[in-house]
Amino acid sequence: MNIKSYTTLLEIAGEGGSITINKKLFGNQYKYWFTTNEAAMADLLSAEDLEGLKLHSKSAIVDSFEEAFTIAKKKYPIFKLHLIYIDDEVKEFVVKGFSEYKDMKSNAFGGRSWRVLLGFEPNDRK
Fold this sequence. Notes:
single chain
């Protein structure tokens, strides 16, 4: 797949890895998927420890961002990772999911990047 042939809608990172949700136009319909990249683990683990680990993965292709996000959220602790980028196209959906998560956690969530990028608090660090 040509790197420039798809659009990243959401990028999240944690220690040693990242998750991106992407879209690409196939014919007249957009398709969505997420990828994981844990290549930084190669710098931390021995060759023996790396044996059998997948440092890069790609989910199944689905018909909506919502479906790709839901699958990723079930598999990974999305809201405990750092939000790097969010496209305006999906921001409203993600804000709703974050609000529900935040309420469920009784405001114990400490992910400032989510709160700032989603507009829950100002970015006063310049």
